[in-house]
Design brief:
Elements lengths: L25 H7 L4 E6 L2 E5 L5 E2 L1 E2 L4 H4 L6 E7 L2 E8 L11 E5 H4 L5 H19 L10 E4 L4 E4 L7 E2 L4 E9 L3 E6 L11 E4 L6 H13 L4 E11 L4 E9 L14 E6 H5 L11 H10 L4
Parallel strand pairs: 1-6, 11-15
Antiparallel strand pairs: 1-2, 1-4, 2-3, 2-7, 5-6, 8-9, 9-10, 11-12, 11-13, 12-16, 14-15
């Protein structure tokens, strides 16, 4: 494993200060603080400054969008660049008058153009917004849910039920398999021509991450693997994944038989990847981080 560095969408970009979520007066304190900043979201999009390069749009207490926001729509994210930061999770399909020079944008296509800490912050807010939208009702009794703990928990409003729901994460493994001199990469039919990436799949109930690596590689390529070892992880809010990265070993000359969701899978040498024979995934992805580490011989 190479020396640790944070993957894109991760790292110490924010002071979460989870203890502040327990303060029942947190909204009053936020609105009274002239330094509080607000990140505005609607559906799965967030408010960005538009121009030659997109950038995060943070508003103050005086902004009409902030003044009109209902308390249940506010989520305390933490402290960003020294200031308290609140996510305003506006209901979808509501007509809004936006500040000049801003518009709502989806994160995924713009992430490579944003500063890393801004992209990470938007990923955090996006994941919370999607979870809140999908948990408006109790999964046990069907009653509406209400936010508590500064928006990080949703509580069933039925007193006889009172179930608490926490933000959902879907763990997925992603792995670079090597037989020593080659890497096993696959592609899906919807990807650009020549695009190949490391193998990935969701972890099933009753399964460890390591078990998922062995199962998924076998299902998708018929290649048995061993020596599964952890590399790093990456939050991936499209919509709610946590990608957990591994390396694994396969026997030399292992035959590949494609199955599952892949259109193709094959072995590539370092020279083939470096020459562009396999079009690598975007550099913001953990998949590229795994490939890059292997190319450097550090896997």
């Amino acid at each position: 494993m190479d020396q640790y560095r944070a993957n894109f969408f991760a790292g110490p970009y924010l002071e979460r200060r989870a203890e502040a979520r327990e303060d029942p007066e947190w909204i009053r304190a936020a609105r009274a603080d002239p330094n509080t900043r607000y990140l505005i979201g609607q559906g799965s999009a967030q408010l960005l400054k538009v121009g030659s390069e997109p950038a995060l749009a943070l508003l103050g207490n005086e902004a009409p969008l902030v003044r009109a926001a209902a308390d249940p729509d506010l989520v305390l994210l933490g402290w960003f660049r020294g200031a308290r930061l609140v996510f305003v999770d506006l209901p979808p399909q509501r007509a809004l008058e936006l500040p000049p020079g801003t518009r709502f944008e989806e994160l995924r296509p713009l992430a490579p153009m944003l500063a890393a800490e801004e992209a990470a912050l938007l990923a955090y807010a996006r994941a919370l917004g999607i979870w809140r939208a999908r948990q408006r009702h109790c999964g046990v009794c069907g009653a509406t849910t209400v936010p508590i703990r500064a928006g990080h928990v949703l509580l069933c409003s039925n007193p006889s039920c009172a179930q608490e729901f926490f933000p959902r994460l879907e763990p997925a493994m992603i792995v670079l398999v090597s037989d020593g001199e080659r890497a096993l990469l696959g592609r899906q039919a919807s990807w650009p021509a020549r695009r190949y990436s490391t193998l990935a799949g969701f972890v099933e109930p009753g399964e460890s991450l390591e078990d998922a690596v062995v199962r998924e590689v076998l299902e998708e390529t018929a290649v048995p693997v061993s020596n599964v070892r952890y590399h790093s992880s990456q939050p991936w809010p499209f919509p709610a994944s946590l990608m957990v990265g591994f390396f694994a070993s396969a026997a030399p000359a292992s035959e590949v038989h494609v199955g599952g969701e892949l259109e193709d899978a094959r072995w590539f040498t370092r020279a083939q990847i470096a020459s562009g024979e396999a079009l690598a995934p975007p550099t913001q992805s953990i998949s590229w981080h795994l490939i890059e580490t292997w190319l450097k011989g550090a896997a």
